[in-house]
Design a protein that fits this description.
Shape: globular
Radius of gyration: 17 Å
Number of strands: 5
Helix content: 40-55%
Structural class: mainly alpha
């Protein structure tokens, strides 16, 4: 098994830089179910972020691309069940916030508190006011 960094996966997905995209494609297409590539949770979050911010890929398409990576027999994704749950919950919210909630749930948290109003839209997040009672 080999680890795959964000830039390798992004080059494979977007095919925008001819030389690097060709190398990334060769590496990824040589992966097999018995000799897979590995995507860490950080890499998955970075892939989503880069696609959204740098390439302006719409959120639904980002979810489709990440689900494709999760479904690939040639890839092992760190905390795949958590990523799948976060992708399901991420409609209209940031994937990183959805992952934070899912990791909290997996750790036994009743909910996750935040000051971020956008993050508070994720089920399982609870918005704190500027002045809390603790």
């Amino acid at each position: 098994m080999i680890g795959l960094d964000t830039d390798v996966v992004v080059r494979y997905l977007v095919q925008d830089e001819p030389d690097q995209s060709a190398v990334a494609t060769t590496v990824i297409e040589q992966l097999t179910e018995s000799d897979p590539g590995y995507l860490s949770l950080v890499t998955v979050i970075e892939i989503y972020w880069v696609l959204r911010r740098a390439y302006r890929v719409d959120p639904e398409r980002c979810v489709e691309l990440l689900q494709g990576l999760l479904d690939s027999r040639e890839l092992r994704v760190d905390r795949a069940a958590t990523v799948r749950a976060a992708l399901s919950a991420s409609r209209g919210v940031d994937l990183a916030d959805a992952v934070i909630v899912e990791l909290g749930r997996a750790a036994g948290c009743e909910y996750t508190v935040t000051f971020d109003q956008r993050a508070a839209r994720v089920g399982g997040m609870q918005l704190l006011g500027a002045h809390t009672d603790g």
